[in-house]
User: What shape does this take?
Amino acid sequence: MIKSSSWKSQITSLPSECRPTDGKASFAVNHNDFAHRIDVSPNGDVVFISGTRKYAWLSLDGIIFHVKPSQPINVTDSFSVIANDYRLPSVSRQGSYCLASGLIGSNSNNNDSFVTQLPFACRPKNQLMFGTSDADGMNLVSVSSDGSVSFLTSKRRNEKYLSLDQIHFVTSPMDETMAAQAQEVDRLQLVIEFFYFIYFI
Assistant: This one.
């Protein structure tokens, strides 16, 4: 929590060991009845981007990210990857903790809410809901036990971008057998996507 009657756009700077090295990450943080968008840059800058400033405080809780580059994930044709110095869609597992990241754009001509499918090693035991940053506050995101990630907020089609940051959860511990199964499932998924690309695109 920070408190100031006139806080500036740059809120603070993170130490070198706590920075997203492969691109900016974007978060929605609490400002009482408003959500503010905060970006964290590879140089450590934590910057206020947008939101209605009404109170003299701002919460920084919920800013969680993996530091190093992680496993890329593909998004469906209903969405597009936004680079512009931001992280590409990705997921990381550290112990039993999974974190997603990346900034994507929405195709306004397609109403499909399915975004991506997380790899086998990063799937929750039950369906989970998350609030993530968009251009005008927050969106509701669902992550199912099969790894399906879907945006549930209907107004999202009017936004310029959608953030995958703030999707993080604890999953089941993995032994060697489960790790091998995860690699095989992900390999088969890549093969299926490859043949879909060859024959249908």
Q: What stands out?
A: The first strand starts at residue 2 and ends at 3. Residues 71-174 form a domain with the Immunoglobulin-like fold (CATH 2.60.40.1830). Residues 184-201 have pLDDT under 50 and may be disordered. The chain has two domains: 2-58, 71-174.
